[in-house]
Write a structure and sequence with these properties.
It is a single chain. The chain is an alpha/beta fold. About 40% of the residues lie in helices and about 20% in strands. The chain has 2 domains: about 270 residues, Aldehyde Dehydrogenase, Chain A, domain 1 (3-Layer(aba) Sandwich); about 140 residues, Aldehyde Dehydrogenase, Chain A, domain 2 (3-Layer(aba) Sandwich). The longest helix has 20 residues. The termini are far apart. About 50% of the residues are buried.
């Protein structure tokens, strides 16, 4: 076995080895293993949970302002270490460095929002709800919480979760993706530098054994998850069955509607980034365009074809690269298989990225941009989430037809419409059955002080990720009603239900 650097776990403020199994971490641009990550066994995860449980009483009692100051210092450290963080991210995920920097910035914005904890946790107060009686509500932490995060945003998605959970007074166990774990681990180490006490945040790398331990351990009060829909459904069902609060964000198949009056040039530019940015490995990517009318479809296909011809596919470390490799060989094979299936089922492959070659990186997992025309609803490439650089154009006659297709799809994560018609945009946003909607915005990812979440089989649970919903998810409301009777006054028993009459 190759002597590779070893990625460990962070438990109780220390890097520790744990578990007898490990797996390689590859550089997607070369196809070479560059590190090995230890996979936590049940005992190791239980150590992390125990550390979080031991740290909870003191952290819960820490004033929100002091918790917030840790987040403020972490924000500065993330900015100061941006270059190192993004280099780690690109080396293990493959996305281009500018995209890594964008991911980090969106994560930092969530840390910044968590630093507003004293304002967000103020609660509500009502005086004189009855004679000499006051009532108020408080938002109290849950205890030990946990997060299971995906490979495609190894910095940003963990920062959707644990900063707010911790700012609310909880402790946290993070299980990042074992495909690209280094950047999440470094962020956690920076949190310790920012003043986070040992045990408040723990990181365990692992696979299903680690996940199942978090789902079933009674000390864990809440689980956050982002990943595919089948796994999200499993996380939700298993976590709920064990009495946990669960939010599980699943897959997507986001449609962009292109109206005949749209600015085709600007729409094409927007769709290029939305479809092929991060090699399409985004749950908010646009893999489908519903073009209203053949003339609209012809124009957008021609525009996309011309822009794809200008794209440079290469390693993420190359400043000239527009798109890097897919994350693993297995994922490359899966996405390529979808392209093969699209051809087999009768879609027109206008641009074929399967033969792309990157000189000097022949072992990398590079797939060029693929463009289909004449996609139909029954096709596999229409129904299933591909999670790769594959864009399909579908021809529809009317906005109503487009909306019926979107509303009938099992996923409801994101969608957008390109138009100059305000009435059409308003009707679309009012009646579309999707959780996040863009109007001339292809990736309507909410900013940190709003919340992120889809509808239908894109989200399991009642609360969305980050923003105001995160405060509700990571706290429980306690309502207190008090009355101080006048001294020396004896009151008789009252047997009717209390009212304020």
């Amino acid at each position: 076995m190759q002597n590779l650097p070893q990625i460990q776990h962070l438990i109780d403020g220390q890097l520790v080895a744990g578990g007898t199994r490990s797996q390689d971490v590859f550089n997607p641009a070369t196809g070479l293993a560059e590190k090995r990550v230890l996979l936590a066994d049940k005992h190791t995860v239980e150590q992390a949970i125990a550390s979080a449980q031991a740290a909870y009483p003191a952290w819960r009692a820490t004033p929100p302002l002091k918790r917030a100051r840790v987040m403020s210092r972490l924000k500065t450290l993330l900015e100061d270490n941006a270059e190192q963080l993004c280099a780690l991210l690109t080396a293990e995920h493959g996305k281009v460095l500018s995209d890594s920097m964008g991911e980090l910035q969106r994560g930092i914005e969530n840390v910044e929002y968590a630093s507003y904890a004293p304002e967000l946790l103020k609660g509500e107060h009502s005086k004189n709800v009855g004679p000499a009686m006051d009532s108020w509500s408080e938002f109290q932490p849950l205890g030990v919480t946990a997060g299971i995060t995906p490979f495609n945003f190894p910095i940003m998605v963990p920062l959707w979760m644990w900063p707010m959970a911790i700012a609310c007074g909880n402790t946290f166990v993070l299980k990042p993706s074992e495909r690209d774990p280094s950047s999440a681990l470094l962020v956690a180490e920076l949190a310790l530098q920012a003043g986070l006490p040992p045990g408040v945040l723990n990181v365990v790398n692992g696979d299903k054994e680690a996940v199942d331990t978090l789902l079933t351990d009674k000390r864990v009060q809440a689980i956050s998850f982002v990943g595919s829909t089948p796994i999200a459904e499993y996380i939700y069902a298993t976590g709920c069955a064990h009495g946990k609060r669960v939010q599980a964000l699943g897959g997507a198949k986001n449609h962009a509607v292109l109206m005949p009056d749209a600015d085709i040039g600007n729409a094409v530019s927007a769709l290029m980034g939305a479809a092929f940015g991060s090699c399409g490995e985004r749950c908010m990517a646009i893999p489908l365009v519903l073009a209203v009318g053949d003339a609209t479809a012809d124009a957008v296909v021609a525009g996309l074809q011309a822009e794809i011809a200008k794209m440079k596919v290469g390693p993420g470390t190359d400043a000239d690269s527009d798109m890097g490799p897919l994350v693993t060989q297995a994922h490359f094979d899966k996405v390529k298989g979808y392209v093969d299936q699209g051809v087999k089922e009768g879609a027109t492959l206008v641009v074929d990225g399967r033969t792309v070659s990157v000189p000097g990186h022949e072992g990398g997992y590079f797939l060029g941009a693929c463009l289909f025309d004449h996609v139909k609803p029954g096709m596999t490439i229409y129904q299933e989430e591909i999670f790769g650089p594959v864009l399909g154009v579908m021809r529809v006659a009317t906005l109503r037809e487009a909306m019926d297709l979107i509303n009938a799809h099992e996923y409801g994560n994101g969608t957008c419409i390109f138009t100059r018609d305000g009435e059409a945009a308003r009707y679309f946003s009012d009646h579309i059955l999707v959780g996040m909607v863009g109007i001339n915005v292809p990736l309507p990812v909410p900013v940190a002080y709003h919340s992120f979440g889809g509808w239908k089989r894109s989200l399991f649970g009642d609360l969305s990720a980050y923003g105001p919903d995160a405060v509700r998810f990571y706290t429980k409301r306690k309502t207190i009603t008090q009355r101080w009777p006048s001294a020396g006054v004896r009151e008789g028993a009252v047997y009717s239900f209390p009212t304020n009459r």
